[in-house]
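Bifunctional enzyme IspD/IspF
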Amino acid sequence: MTSYAIIVAAGKGARAKRDKDQVPKQYVKVGGKAVLSWTLESFLTSDHIDHIQVVISASDDDLYQTVLHATQDNCHLANLAKTKLLPPCHGGSTRQLSVFAGLQALKNARPKDEPAEIDHVHIHDGARPFVNNDILQRCEESLIRNRACLVGMPLSDTIKRTNNLEEIEVTLDRTNLWSAQTPQSFQLPFILTAHEKAHAEGISDFTDDAAVAEWAGATVQMVEGSRNNIKITTQEDLTMAEQTLGQFSSALLTDIRVGTGYDVHAFDPGNVCIIGGVAIPHDKKLKGHSDADVGLHAITDAILGAIADGDIGTHFPPSDPQWKGAKSDIFLKDAVRRVNDLGGKISNIDMTIVCEEPKIGPHRPAIREAIADICSISINRVSVKATTSERLGFTGRKEGVAAIATVCIRLPEYD
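Structure:
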């Protein structure tokens, strides 16, 4: 018997988007990883799942690749993915059509010489990252006796039915009422045939697979899920997941790295200096191929040093004309992305600006805020200091500005 999982991740998830999110909810990062990464990890590490079919939108191929890259950065997950993870397929305009696409992909991927009569399939929402191995085990046990089962929880709240004016009409008896979750699990031949029949008859608006099974004549067994096994639907759900997964992720980030960065830029004729992402009025500017932001350059190199990934010149060579005059937040955001792709997080940033002029003190709050915003961390994790060199050296002669940065990063332990 082979157990498959179909992870449905083809939706757009507009209700869960925050202003800063430009991607569907399943690709929003919480706890340093995309929601879909957490969901996928639960199935990869489960000893009840043999193969996984992910269903994505045709417009999300690049986003899904970032999920795969994050998986490859963990040796254990990478090895599991090699044996369990099937190539993704593209979903349809409704959830039912997306599941149908996943089932067809499984049908085509299965070895032709193996009987399918006893195979199982667990169909799960990509934006439901809190599924666990115990739930999957209960589903597997149910499928020994039943063609179909549905994970859910008995309702504990009192249920009211209202009219169109939101006036209460009746209080319902909550006895025997359950809230449905996923996975929804089936004997594979049965649910495949049921979906094919519904597709042939032009029916595409079933909201879950248990409804398809009921329509096809099966009795669906309820299996207890977990109150934590929520689907991320709203911004409030996303905030809760971020808190929960963030704490879980932090507990696993035990590889502490420290990097240092140092940068220098000379003065040139001008009227403003860009330091730490802030334009500071001055009778000179800083000379450089990009906008010459000495502060952001030092922080970028400190991050790259902490993750042993070259330096700013490695990824953005000054010989490349496309970076002429570029804003330095591009470089820093790329370094932060590299940390995120490793499943890590920036713990804190400490930067010192060395110069006689311009005066940094009045602009320090704005610089801290700019760095925190670029790095997507709390301003309480950003320190900015300023000092002079007591009129010694090139900074003492007012020939330019230097910056020194130290960054602490937390990463997962790797094999």
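The domain at 256-411 is CATH 3.30.1330.50 (60s Ribosomal Protein L30; Chain: A;).
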